[in-house]
Amino acid sequence: MPVDLPPPNPAQLFPIAGVRIGVVQAGIRKADRKDLTVFLLDEGTSVGAAFTANRFCAAPVQVCQAHLAAGGQIRALLINTGNANAGTGADGLARARSTCEALAQRLGVSAQQVLPFSTGVIMEPLPSERIVAGLDTAIAAAGPAHWLDAAQGIMTTDTVPKAYGAQLPLGGRTVSITGISKGAGMIRPNMATMLGFIATDACIAPALLQPLARKLAQASFNRITVDGDTSTNDSLVLMASHQAGNLIIDSLDSADGQALYAGLLEVALKLAHAIVRDGEGATKFITVQVDGGANTEECSRVAYAIAHSPLVKTAFFASDPNLGRILAAVGYAGIADLDTDGIELFLDDVHVATRGGRNPAYQEADGQRVMRQSEIRVRVDLGRGHASHTVWTCDLSLDYVRINADYRS
Amino acid sequence: MPVDLPPPNPAQLFPIAGVRIGVVQAGIRKADRKDLTVFLLDEGTSVGAAFTANRFCAAPVQVCQAHLAAGGQIRALLINTGNANAGTGADGLARARSTCEALAQRLGVSAQQVLPFSTGVIMEPLPSERIVAGLDTAIAAAGPAHWLDAAQGIMTTDTVPKAYGAQLPLGGRTVSITGISKGAGMIRPNMATMLGFIATDACIAPALLQPLARKLAQASFNRITVDGDTSTNDSLVLMASHQAGNLIIDSLDSADGQALYAGLLEVALKLAHAIVRDGEGATKFITVQVDGGANTEECSRVAYAIAHSPLVKTAFFASDPNLGRILAAVGYAGIADLDTDGIELFLDDVHVATRGGRNPAYQEADGQRVMRQSEIRVRVDLGRGHASHTVWTCDLSLDYVRINADYRS
Question: Number of C-alpha atoms within 13 angstroms, CB side, residue B84?
Fold first, then answer.
């Protein structure tokens, strides 16, 4: 059961003018499930993307990067679940390219104008012939209202579809933003991958899309962790169809640029948080906020040390305010000159530790109260500067081990 | 149940001339258990030590470092279980110092000649008065044959005592080495700490003890991980009583120096491995060896990425040859210019992956056979140099989560 994650609200999944979506059952790995999704993008749509930092990046990630680097307009995304096409070598690259070619041919564009995405079992050959066989139906079915279908069509072992939308006024027009994501760990056993697709009809200078996609990923999908494992296929794609009629945004520093970024970030965060809430075995949604650092990088190290500590994560699972574990994680996060006497620790509103030791006013009953909640904020103040960083994670439960130990059996 | 770890063989725990050990029940936390251990060292004994890198280091670690830095001869170690004296601030420091003073007074030495060690519950005041009350009995009971008692006297939630000894010929004499250790995770819930104490009667130049202790720690205790959490109290102490009559060893590069180091390393590795074999919930003992790196540091990063991956560890627990998880961990270990096409992966004698992909000759049945063993060697060849590094770890089991989630309840 995902943690405090309501199902997507169809009324909130706004169609994006210029973006049509087709979802079909192509029988890629299992019968009777939506497993092939195409995004068809009107001419004039700009695309930016951010990808996994894993050196073992999957074939479709490599093809995406090459097609984006070619610089042409991207006109379609082609997404399959059931097979990640990762760890598949030259054959995997050839199959990914062949599916792009098949879709491009049907659309009258070049193969480099298609971006491929795959998620599912790794180290097995991509059944590209089944993907190609499903393309005509997918194209014929394509329409602007199929966001929820697409959210279902990219799921692997996610327990719920993940979709979210927002609208905002921008230069006298209403701009829509809609996105979907999938993933229930940063990597799944054989079901690798976190994927996110966000589209807007806003008019944005094309050159802004790529930096904007990276900035959004840094602020959302790159700040979530279930188990610290980084997938081979992680991808976030941002599409702007330029059909809302707003005055073109050519800087994120303008008032309109800031408003648009805030809207995009809201959607990206909802989609990223949904992955943590649906994390493998998750029973708690935990925000780890580190303040008072000398720089963002050290705040990030401390935040991840806490978020990745199996001892901290099992304490959250047990609702046990075993807070020495959090301080110990701060201590080994790798800040060589850290003065532990300056450290403050809060659980929500409860001031647990002060000056590096137990707060004399702290009562275990207060810590216990917060630990029983399904959503918890851990806040550490390092007391050495003004930088901050926040990451989101879940607890480590018996079900996490069961899911990952039993998955293939 | 520890993994393939026979109980200590008393006949192998050689008395070390110049080292007497007293173990008593001081009622520090629980009745009817050995919880206070003193090592009394003859004049002329040299001591070296290595400590936790955690910035939240416990009061006894801080006192040890100050006493060693003072440069006088160390004449006694004072070790309690039941309370880690960590996260206890100025009061903890004062209590650690007061126990050193009490022992020093009884021995007619200075407080700075005593090293204190504590393990057990954290963030609770050290019951120093109970420690002091037990000192006279401990001193009176001290003798050279109490190594096994000491191994029991430093246990917290270890399921078995950990002790090992070796003898070797050195310059016409027989040199003895005996050691004990404790710990069942790099950190325990409230029961923090890995401790190791190794003594030898060999004659070694005193100036060599400190670098030798660090080198031994680097090659043994610093290469084991259960959950990646580094304790606030970890300590390794090396004592040389200089009573074996061998020609003094003033360089580790001499033939005798190399022989002695090999003997010490054998004991240190047995003691370090025993901690992993008795790791929380462990069902498998796993050696992770990374070869072919450009330097040791990158081999170490890859080895720890594998050893810390919850997905890899749960696959070992499930005896599931889910090998993409190992390749994915190699990929995200942080080697920016890693060419994955050069990577080879072996499970014991089974060649699983070649040139970064599945070895065409690999049969899952072979991987399955190795995964069912209680001891497994993972070997990765990065194919980019001649450096190597090895670490040891265990699997991540349901019992790990149960132990850490239920500990305080």
Answer: 28
